Amino acid sequence: MRKKLVLSILIVVMVSMISTPVFAAFASWNEIVDEMRDVINQSYNTYLTGDIDTAKDQVDTAYFGYYEKLGFEKTVMAYVSGARAAKVEYQFSIIKKAMTNRAPNNEVRQALDLLVQYLREDANQLDGKGESALGVFLGSLLIIVREGFEAILVVGAIVAYLLKSGNKKSTKPVYWGAILALGFSVVMAFILNALTGNASGQGQEILEGVTMLVAVAVLFYVSNWMVSKAEAEAWTSYIEGKVQSSITKGSVFSLAFAAFLAVFREGAETILFYQALLAQTQSYVNMVWLGLGIGAVILVAVYILIRVVSFRLPLKPFFLGTSVLLFLMSVTFIGNGIKELQEGNLIGVTPVSFVGSVDILGIYPTLETLIPQILLLAATVITFVMQLKRNKRLSSAAAV
Question: 86 — phi, psi (to 5°)?
């Protein structure tokens, strides 16, 4: 409990440590859209000259230099929806793909106009809201809960697993992994603030994407390891093969690393979300901190709930449930990770019209995100079934 309170306090401190960038040069989101429209129109004029690379760079300037840097994306996510932000982000990618394929001029123009339409609609909605104490509070609360929920689920599940299996001493590396991740997040936020231009924004997307994909591999391994101990007999056999009731150093590292990645993948981005929120809040800064504080308390409550429920559940359902949770988290992470790499221009975009975005599950309407998720899900089911059969054999052998 005290460790999670320390983590929550660190979240508040790390946000306050980072100086707020000057987003306040614009009086409204529509003013930002006006400048973005000029850059977007310039990219079209450049495309007409045949200079494809420069035209795409100008689209990136609109995205990294305005949509991301000025907090437009983060504000849409906070006040509209994550799915809407994803739709706009993919429109940038669709435009660049059309330019790369040397699409007809009218097709590129239509794609650019649609992007401006999306941006204008969001700006009108955000400007129309006006600033209120409740609105600022809810925006702040939503940021910390949304960004921290996945991390709390991962850390809470791992810690509960260790406690349930009699490995309390091994929880310390997990907590330290989470704390180190917060520290690295602060450093990363400083670096991202110090850098300017498209390169820094693209680098952030790539870093986040790579971090998530590494987290996928670690979570898949950890969840597979957990399900292998789902049978009480399997766990007993595992423990009896050790000198004492403890897990291997390699397993401890994997668990701690999983906690580190879960926190780190959200840490720096959370800081940037709050920077954008603080920059646009003129009269209700106190509501930002109140929302952050209450959100941190909610996350602590979620963690405690995981702990309480874990002790009430029988061994087998708990181990299986924890394994399934981490498997599902890995499927979510792979979708989000590839999306970040798409935004960083490392992976292409092939739209799938009949699929909508489900931001919380990492589901996005592109083949590049959906195919790896389907493959990972298939691998997960196969692995899960194989491990259950293996556990059943162990149980039968122990009963003989």
Answer: -65, -40
pLDDT tens for each residue of the chain, 400 residues long: 445 444 554 554 444 444 444 445 677 889 999 999 999 999 999 999 999 999 999 999 999 888 988 878 878 887 788 889 999 999 999 999 999 999 999 999 999 999 999 999 999 998 876 667 777 788 788 888 877 887 888 888 888 878 877 778 888 888 898 889 888 887 877 776 666 556 567 777 888 888 888 888 888 887 777 776 655 445 455 444 443 444 566 677 888 888 888 888 777 777 777 776 776 676 778 888 898 889 889 988 888 888 887 777 776 677 777 778 888 888 888 998 899 899 888 888 898 988 888 877 889 999 999 999 999 999 888 888 887 777 677 666 555 5
Among 250, 272, 278, 243, CA closest to 185 = 272
Among left, alpha and beta (phi > 0; psi -120 to 50; other), residue 130 is left
pTM: 0.71
